[in-house]
Amino acid sequence: MINVTFKFRKPNATTPQYVYIVIRFGRSEKLVYNTGLKVLPRHWNAERMRARAMVEVPHRVEINARLDELQSAISGFAVEQLTKGQKVDRYGVRDFLDVYTGKRAASTGSEFHDFVTEYIKRNDERTNPKTGRTISYKTKREHSRVYELLKTPIRFKLCF
Predict the structure, then answer these.
(1) pLDDT for 94-143, tens place per residue?
(2) DSSP states of 39-99
(3) Which residues contact 151 (CB under 8 A, 6 or more apart)?
(4) What percent of the chain has pLDDT over 90?
(5) Beta pairing partners, 6
(6) Of 20, 31, 95, 151, whose CB neighbour count within 10 A is largest?
(7) How confident is the model at residue 156, as a pLDDT?
(8) How far apart are CA 67 and CA 32, in angstroms?
(9) What is the mean pLDDT of residues 31-46?
(10) What is the b/e burial string over 48-86, where b = at least 16 CB atoms within 10 angstroms of the residue's CB?
(11) What is the pLDDT of residue 115?
(12) Which among 16, 103, 91, 101 has a CA at the least distance from the CA of 66?
């Protein structure tokens, strides 16, 4: 399973520092991800990995609630991936966190297909940069043909 902790890059700093999520996937792989939350290191409880309950710490309740939310979301994602029989790795968790925190919009899964169909539609308008002439009929045909081949699933026959 994965281990989620919250740390600073500079724990001895005197200015507010970003809190980072450190996720370990076994011994060899880890992900360090910025939460976007800032706390003074002296206002941080390293054992509980949360902001201290002090009057001096502004927005400590919101910061701790957000850290709890991130931790439970990561755990939920990991459990969901494992129940689907998929591997939990740093790339999948990074993509999940990018979407969850709003850094990136969720992909529809058809971005590649949308791009290629738009590219093929624009073939009539494009010109060859080397010659300055419009793209030939054969080039347009090959673009369409390759795209159709990419859409068909590949079936391998294993012979032992």
Answers:
(1) 989 988 888 877 666 677 777 888 888 888 777 877 888 888 889 889 99
(2) E-GGGEETTTTEE---TTSTTHHHHHHHHHHHHHHHHHHHHHHHHTT----HHHHHHHHHH
(3) 113
(4) 23
(5) 21
(6) 31
(7) 64
(8) 14
(9) 90
(10) ebbbeeeeebeebeebbebbeebbeebeebbeebeeeee
(11) 82
(12) 101
Beta pairing partners, 134: 127
124-155 burial, b for 16+ CB within 10 Å, e for fewer?
eeeeeeeeeeebeeeeeeeeeeeeeeeeeeee
Region 58-79 average pLDDT: 91
**pLDDT for residue 113:** 79
CB neighbourhood size of 96 (10 A): 19
* Separation in Å, CA 117 to CA 19, 22, 110: 42, 40, 11
SS3 126: coil
For the record, the structure tokens of 160 come out as: 């032992």
User: What is the model's pLDDT at position 118?
Assistant: 82
The tokens 């992900």 sit on which residue?
31
pLDDT of residue 92: 85
